[in-house]
Protein: STAS domain-containing protein
Amino acid sequence: MPAPQALPPSWRDDAVAAGIITLLLIPQSLAYALLAGLPAELGLAASIVPALAYAAVGTSPVSVMGPGAVLSLMTAQALQHALAVAPEGTSAAALAGVLALETGAVLLLGAALRFDALVALLSVPVLHGFMTGAALTIVITQLPVLAGSSSGGTRLVDVAAGWLGAARPGHLLTLGITVAAITLLWLGRRAGGQAGRAAPLAVMALAIAGAALADASGHGVAVVGALPALAIRPTWPALDPALWRLMLPSAALLALLVSVEHLAVAGSLAARRRQHLVPRRELCGLGGANLLAALSGGMPVGGGLSRSAVAFEANARSLRVGVIVAGLMALSALLLAAPLALLPRAVLAATIVLAASSMLDLQPFRLAWRYAREEFWVMLGVAALTVLASMEVALSVGVALSAALLLQRTADPHVARIGRVPGTEHYRNIERHATEEQPGVVALRIDESLLFTNARDLGSLVQDQLDEDTRRVVLQMSPVNAIDFSGLTALLALDEALHARGVRLDLAEVKGPLMDRLKTADWAARAHGRVFLSMHQALQPDADPR
Amino acid sequence: MPAPQALPPSWRDDAVAAGIITLLLIPQSLAYALLAGLPAELGLAASIVPALAYAAVGTSPVSVMGPGAVLSLMTAQALQHALAVAPEGTSAAALAGVLALETGAVLLLGAALRFDALVALLSVPVLHGFMTGAALTIVITQLPVLAGSSSGGTRLVDVAAGWLGAARPGHLLTLGITVAAITLLWLGRRAGGQAGRAAPLAVMALAIAGAALADASGHGVAVVGALPALAIRPTWPALDPALWRLMLPSAALLALLVSVEHLAVAGSLAARRRQHLVPRRELCGLGGANLLAALSGGMPVGGGLSRSAVAFEANARSLRVGVIVAGLMALSALLLAAPLALLPRAVLAATIVLAASSMLDLQPFRLAWRYAREEFWVMLGVAALTVLASMEVALSVGVALSAALLLQRTADPHVARIGRVPGTEHYRNIERHATEEQPGVVALRIDESLLFTNARDLGSLVQDQLDEDTRRVVLQMSPVNAIDFSGLTALLALDEALHARGVRLDLAEVKGPLMDRLKTADWAARAHGRVFLSMHQALQPDADPR
Structure:
């Protein structure tokens, strides 16, 4: 065993990464708590104990738990809805605790019941449309704060209505602070690197100093205000069954989003290091983090897109990073409470707007427009519904449309009549390639699995290709990846119908797993034709015994 | 123009077919009206004008509109539900009119909006499970009638409760008539042919004669009772918007079932004559028939499974058949009203039970058990839900499960590493066949389209197959029938990830339509590898320029 020297290199890497993440997390934790409509200190609380919980269970060193932009918007919408119907005196903080607790429970249940497969339901168009719509909504909710208005709201329609009816629609000094903050943040981002990552905290420090010198609060600038002394203590969320039922749908949606975002981000970063995530352990990590967020007086948490990217770049190597960040955050909360109280809210709003605007990416819209027009409309529709209706509606409609497009795609398969590419053993569409055909034999390729969605049309698809001289039909089965029960029924009926016309139905290139299935249905005994290893063998002169 | 001689042969064929169908339709029309909980004369009315409407619009000579077993059960359940909440004094006949009118309207709307594609949603397991459950339910509803009980009900639970609490749980003379009728019907069916088809009407004639001689009604046997004089006159269904809203879901379900059954039965019979149905015209024909059923005082109608089979065997050749049947049915209704009044209801119940029991077929259950265990459970589940819950629940659950199974099937594709079958240009799974591989090249076949359900796993699926020496990956694209936007994104990311590892990703055997799509996404410019016509060309020594 080597003698303990200074910190080993990976410790040093991890400590540096943790420092950088903390620089990012201090403004994020305050800003996202305010975005969620919660007191700022809930964001700080949610950045300490949950990070420890994930470090104990999770596997990704680049994921540090804390509040996130989209999560906070979802929390805001859920709380706004719940506050309207909850018993009088219920605080937003109590509801946030219930929401985090239920989100954690759903995640743990999902891990136990292997629900991580449900994550696959969110297609790229749905997810990108949703993220775009959420980013736009986040920007919209921050506009009144940036302008110095006293109004609020978590949806486009509330924000617009609130702003129009606001007692103070704008405030000139606040607007000036906003312009200065956005300019500095934007310059920081353009500079990139260390400067870029430190920019939010530097801008905050500048703003605090400026606000203290100029008595901004006295001149009508909204500030964060006094933070209670940090005391991480067990908190038990409100035990009202009606509240629990009320928050459950939002919690399920949050759980889905937290897992999708985390598995996508942490998964792709792990793959770059040729590592794998274990989805179930990740769900447990996320679930534990949210449970402990609830029990330590926080709000729903997730892995965080920007934090993970920064941690990856900073070469975060082990789960220690999360532990160090938790310690640094606790220290910051203790030391910085007094100065943070002076921070203008508009500065936090500016950091939110910059973060959200970096989520806007038109490239996928452009590519989808050219490559898959229907999916472009799904993407745009989900984005629009996210802004105009609600996140739940947008995601439900998006998932239903994705599934419907998939079903519809299988319903109307492309059928190609194929012939031999001369001089090869390769068979291709006779209309696209110069090919040779055998007289009396129709060779067909149906480009789809045989499924209930297309089974009803199989018979006429094939029989439409025959003429009076046809005595054999050979189906190239390489595009047929599955034959469900309806497909089997249709294929048997086709064999029977062709047999009645004096035509033999042969199969070629049936894949191994499919052939195993067909054997369980006694294909050889029921059908009248033969099965060939390759198209080329099926079309040898001696392949037809008649 | 030839001199008019006797009837031309096809006229004679059609007249004979019409006669046979009428023999079948007289007992059916009465029995199914009673099964639906409606006065018997509604069944007669529904067998006259609707047949004319279909003959004017439809295309299938073997389809003669009239009441059907499953339709009548659905009507019974819809009416029972509606009668419980309709304003007092609303008659079942008025509700049946509303139901038929709405069913017709939904069918016409479906034809206009091309909803016939929705029919594909009913997979074989769902449809067979549903038909099995419906047949069992029909048998169950007739049991009290067969036993001579005074109780009723349209679902297992109502029938059981009604029978247990019935004032008259059974009646010996009725039971005797039941046993005699079932025996004769069963012998007739075993005999088959002409005797079999005439059996129901012969049994009815016998039963009427016996009932008249022995004064069955006076001894407590339930009989059909006096039929009002047949008067086909315009009837306008009740104009109550609340009733219309109430019946709409049932009407939509009826429309779906009527179209599925009709397109399946008439479609497969047309195919046997190498003819095609035009689905939209058929929906129009069915819609018109139901509209006119409503306006002439009838009940919902459909093509009828047993009638179509009989008409096909009897060589029905033109739509005249329906017109002749309508005439014969009108004549029968005028002439036979008096004797039909004496017919014991148990005899009609016996014809229903025999017809329903012929719908029971265990063969698909056995095949599904061996071939596709999950689909067996769907079939059984839908059958059980049809009996125990309701038809709506059973079909909704069945369709959702079918779609979920399809999505799940695409989510977890089979991946095969492939090599050359020696002496051929054919490439197969190296674990199933004796094959040759090229050093440094991994040839893979992913047996599924690249879709959002599996896109997230594509990267790790492929990268798991690589080792340190790999410098090329060749994907055989013949099983890939589609690449949706999520799949494209994943494939581009895979290309990028492999490129970063110094590995080139090539594609082979990309199908024509798919290559066209990839070109819209600038595949050649974005990706680092090449596209080959065939696997064999991709694996030639000169295919790798490095």
Remarks:
- The longest helix of chain B spans residues 241-272.
- The beta strands of chain B are 415-420, 427-429, 441-446, 472-476, 504-508, 531-532.
- Chain B touches chain A through 76 residues (CB under 8 Å).
- Chain B is about 60% helix and 5% strand.
